[in-house]
């Protein structure tokens, strides 16, 4: 008997190269082949399950909504649901209809029928629906309350078309997409999603300017919106639907783009970041001076800085100042004293901002960005007085970073950059 992969190749749904890639991945993860083919965006869920229903001669569930009455639940004990991976959802004159996703269940139909005392009619559920319902059933009072399911497509259409706010829409997306990594909102386009192995647009009407502006208003405060108008881009962290998002908003002529990236709030240990041992020792056992981290946008500068701060905080007694830009990481003083300041404060009260820093008199300073010569000058003064400074800067190379520093201020840049280079 041919295996599923061979059948899919014979029918032209996938080719040998795609099958081999999926099989290699299967040997690493242990996941079912069909699930991996969908995850890897080789076939869509609809394509695969429509084919499987025809191939094995079983009915496929195609509705967008489903109610499972408590009375139906009572006909199949929860341990049977759990052990066989089945979902009882309807009773007719023909028998009890059960949803399944793993075709091995078909070998157990007679046994399930015997244990329930009813004729069993198997119905194929798409993976996303099947996994969502099984997960939800664990959380309800099984057999005592009706359960209502709404498909991802239906839920999103309902939320979007009724004008739901950005937080309600994101909550709906997060609840159905455990592998979500990014969400995109752009004027003139339906919302788009990137998850592991796949990028796709939601089945909704294109977003209007009014939708985007309302989302921006919901996500930002007045000060951030002023920055957006002036600089044409803002970046910040926000927690929505119990997920931490790094949010980029970009102004493009007369339109806006919003990109939300899911991040983790747990600070990784520095030793797990992949630095070589000699580099790690150099960073974590510093002499006095300037430690400069250069990397392009989105390459882990914030995570690296937070992990170094956390290392000192938990292992050494130090007075630490962390100048950040709306970091998602929460660092509570442990062995060290850690003072966190938002560098945006200086925009509104520059004199007090620097006075606070000098009053704190830190031993170690962490800078999430050097975006002005004033910040660079302050850092250099601390280095000259025997302190240690760790700083991040956005760039693809040291030469590129220095070139950007030269452009900070045409009148004084040479003095400051030469001074920095000497450290």
TrEMBL record:
<dbReference type="GO" id="GO:0016887">
    <property type="term" value="F:ATP hydrolysis activity"/>
</dbReference>
<dbReference type="InterPro" id="IPR037257">
    <property type="entry name" value="T2SS_E_N_sf"/>
</dbReference>
<dbReference type="InterPro" id="IPR027417">
    <property type="entry name" value="P-loop_NTPase"/>
</dbReference>
<protein>
    <recommendedName>
        <fullName>Type II secretion system protein GspE N-terminal domain-containing protein</fullName>
    </recommendedName>
</protein>
<dbReference type="GO" id="GO:0005886">
    <property type="term" value="C:plasma membrane"/>
</dbReference>
<dbReference type="InterPro" id="IPR007831">
    <property type="entry name" value="T2SS_GspE_N"/>
</dbReference>
<dbReference type="Pfam" id="PF05157">
    <property type="entry name" value="MshEN"/>
</dbReference>
<feature type="domain" description="Type II secretion system protein GspE N-terminal">
    <location>
        <begin position="56"/>
        <end position="133"/>
    </location>
</feature>
């Amino acid at each position: 008997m041919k295996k599923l992969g061979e059948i899919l190749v014979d029918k032209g749904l996938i080719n040998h190269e795609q099958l081999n890639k999926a099989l290699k991945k299967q040997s690493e993860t242990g996941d079912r082949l069909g699930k991996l083919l969908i995850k890897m965006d080789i076939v869509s869920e609809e394509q695969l399950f429509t084919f499987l229903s025809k191939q094995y001669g079983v009915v496929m569930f195609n509705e967008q909504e489903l109610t499972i009455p408590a009375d139906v639940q009572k006909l199949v004990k929860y341990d049977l649901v759990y052990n066989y991976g089945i979902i009882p959802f309807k009773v007719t004159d023909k028998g009890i209809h059960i949803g399944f996703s793993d075709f091995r269940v078909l070998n157990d139909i007679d046994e399930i029928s015997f244990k329930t005392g009813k004729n069993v009619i198997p119905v194929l559920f798409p993976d996303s629906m099947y996994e969502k319902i099984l997960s939800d059933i664990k959380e309800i009072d099984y057999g005592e309350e009706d359960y209502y399911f709404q498909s991802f497509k239906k839920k999103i259409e309902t939320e979007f078309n009724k004008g739901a706010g950005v937080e309600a829409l994101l909550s709906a997306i997060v609840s159905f997409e455990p592998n979500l990594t990014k969400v995109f909102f752009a004027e003139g386009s339906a919302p788009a999603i990137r998850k592991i192995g796949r990028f796709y647009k939601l089945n909704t009407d294109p977003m209007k300017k009014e939708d985007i502006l309302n989302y921006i208003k919901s996500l930002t405060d007045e000060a951030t919106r002023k920055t957006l108008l002036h600089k044409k881009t803002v970046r910040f962290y926000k927690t929505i639907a119990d997920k931490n998002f790094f949010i980029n908003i970009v102004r493009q002529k007369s339109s806006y783009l919003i990109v939300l990236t899911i991040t983790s709030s747990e600070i990784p240990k520095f030793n797990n970041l992949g630095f070589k041992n000699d580099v790690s020792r150099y960073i974590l056992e510093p002499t006095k001076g300037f430690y400069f981290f250069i990397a392009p946008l989105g390459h882990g500068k914030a995570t690296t800085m937070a992990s170094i701060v956390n290392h000192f905080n938990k292992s050494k007694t130090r007075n630490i100042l962390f100048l950040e830009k709306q970091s998602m990481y929460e660092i509570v003083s442990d062995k060290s004293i850690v003072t966190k300041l938002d560098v945006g404060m200086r925009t509104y009260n520059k004199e007090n901002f620097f006075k606070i820093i000098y009053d704190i008199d830190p031993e170690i300073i962490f800078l999430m960005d050097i975006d002005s010569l004033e910040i660079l000058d302050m850092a250099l003064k601390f280095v000259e007085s025997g302190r240690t400074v760790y700083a991040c800067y956005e760039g693809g190379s040291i030469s590129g970073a220095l070139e950007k520093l030269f452009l900070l201020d045409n009148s004084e840049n040479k003095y400051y950059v030469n001074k920095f280079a000497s450290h």
